[in-house]
Design goal:
The chain is built from 8 helices and 9 strands. It has 229 residues and is an alpha/beta fold. The protein has an 8-stranded parallel beta barrel with strand order 1-2-4-5-6-7-8-9.
Length: 229
């Protein structure tokens, strides 16, 4: 444990107030000075990266079916709860370009591995002026390995709900900058971010441990707790 400041990442924007992974939600996090944004990326049938969590659009839009089965133009016809369309990664990057906010892009490749998604996404990010180096994360370790082969200086973090034995060795052999864990582990000299924390008592515990970051659906409430510490 160190005395590092815990960074609070707005998980999919601010789902407590606005539709998750929406441009309105992301704009809100920027306007209200969140430390960072966590967001998810899939590929459409015509290989356009889009920002949405699930493999299917049923839960968060008025449509149904898998993202991979839609062309981007078809997907844009469906609406989120506030009437907005599913954002493309291009639209998202335009929104955050030159903004003082950290980004955590999660490759949603653990169910379907979209061919070449890593190269497509990283090329787009490379062309964007970002204030901070982007963090790439995934539950699918092979996605992070592919990223490392393309850019050995990137920040790659493995997502897992499991307890990791010999975590430092695991990180070293897989070229990981950090771990994104569902449950806190006492790991010395490790960038450890915990997801998804909305319980104030749990937030207080993690903030006292000075973890590198937490992901939360209401970054403003978490920031209030941090300021009380």
């Amino acid at each position: 444990m160190s005395n590092q400041k815990t960074l609070i990442f707005a998980h999919r924007g601010i789902p407590a107030r606005l539709p998750e992974n929406s441009l309105a939600g992301f704009q809100y996090t920027i306007d209200h000075s969140a430390d960072g944004i966590e967001f998810d990326v899939h590929l459409t049938k015509d290989r356009v990266p889009v920002v949405i969590h699930d493999e299917r659009i049923d839960r968060t839009t008025n449509g149904n079916g898998f993202i991979k089965d839609y062309q981007f133009a078809e997907l844009k016809k469906f609406k989120l709860a506030d009437g907005q369309a599913i954002p493309s990664l291009k639209e998202f990057l335009k929104l955050v370009e030159n903004k003082s906010i950290r980004l955590n892009l999660e490759f949603k490749t653990d169910l379907f591995h979209y061919e070449n998604i890593e190269a497509i996404v990283m090329e787009m990010v490379k062309k964007t002026n970002l204030k901070y180096q982007i963090i790439y994360s995934s539950f699918y370790l092979n996605s992070l390995k592919k990223c490392y082969q393309m850019d050995k200086n990137g920040q790659y973090c493995f997502l897992t709900p499991k307890y990791l034995h010999n975590a430092h060795h695991f990180m070293k052999i897989n070229h990981l900058a950090g771990l994104h864990l569902k449950h806190y582990q006492k790991l010395a000299n490790t960038i450890e971010r915990i997801w998804t924390i909305d319980d104030p008592l749990e937030e207080k515990k993690l903030l006292k441990k000075h973890v590198a970051g937490i992901f939360t659906n209401n970054f403003q409430k978490a920031a209030e707790i941090l300021n009380e510490q």
